[in-house]
Amino acid sequence: MKKMMLIIAFYLLLSSAAAEITISDSLDAPYRSPIKAGLLSALLPGGGQIYNQSYIKAGAVVVIEGLFLGYAIKNHQEADKYYDLWKETDSQFDFDRYEHYYEKRENDIWWLGITIFLSTLDAVTDAYLYDFEYQKQKVRLKFKDKSVLLEYKF
C-alpha cells in the first residue's frame, strides 16, 4: 500500500512539474524556473530534466543514479555480511572482505552524490537556457557598407 501511494505521489509531482510553463514577458517567451528545476532534480532522479522536457537526459540520470544506489546497497549488504562473519570467526580474510566492500560502498555513495550534483547543475542550466532560441531571434548581425551592426529587438 505504501509503494502504491509513493508511486501515485511521484506521478502527480512529475505530471504537475512537467506541465507548468509560465510566460516571462509580453512576447510569449517560454520560461522555466531554474530553482524549481534544481529542486526537482535534487529530490527526484531526472525530475529537473523532465521539467525541462529533456526526456532522454532524464532517462540517463535515472539509470545512472539507480545503478549507483543499487551498487551502494549491494556493497553495504556484503560489508555487513562479512563484518558479522568476522565477529564470529575472527578471520583476517573476512575482515579484508569487509574492508573491501566498505570502501566500495563509500565510493558508490560519493559517485551517487557527484551524479546528483551534476544532474542538478544540468537541470538549472537547461532552465536558464530554455528560451535560448527565442532570445536568439531577437539579436541579429547586419553587414552594411563595410561595417557590422548588431541589432537587438526589444
Polypeptide structure, described:
With 154 residues, the chain is mainly alpha-helical. It contains six helices and four strands; from the N terminus they run H-E-E-H-H-H-H-H-E-E. The protein has helices at 2-19, 34-43, 47-51, 55-89, 92-128, 132-138; strands at residues 22-23, 30-31, 139-144, 147-152. The protein has a two-stranded antiparallel sheet with strand order 1-2. A hairpin with a 2-residue loop joins strand 3 (139-144) and strand 4. The longest helix is centred in the last third of the chain and has 37 residues, at 92-128. The N and C termini lie far apart (54 Å). The model is unreliable at 16-26 (pLDDT under 50).
Class of secondary structure makeup: mainly alpha
Which spans of ≥5 residues are poorly predicted at pLDDT below 50? 16-26
Trace the largest sheet across and list its strands.
Answer: 1-2
What global shape is seen?
elongated
Helix-strand string: HEEHHHHHEE
Please give the radius of gyration in angstroms: 24 Å
Beta percentage is 5-15%
Number of helices: 6
List keywords for this structure.
154 residues, mainly alpha, two-stranded antiparallel sheet, two-stranded antiparallel ribbon
Please outline the helices and strands.
Layout: H1 2-19, E1 22-23, E2 30-31, H2 34-43, H3 47-51, H4 55-89, H5 92-128, H6 132-138, E3 139-144, E4 147-152
Antiparallel strand pairs: 1-2, 3-4
Helix pairs in contact: 2-5, 4-5
Q: In brief, what are we looking at here?
A:
The protein is mostly helical and 154 residues long. Helix content is 73%, strand content 10%. The model is unreliable at 16-26 (pLDDT under 50).
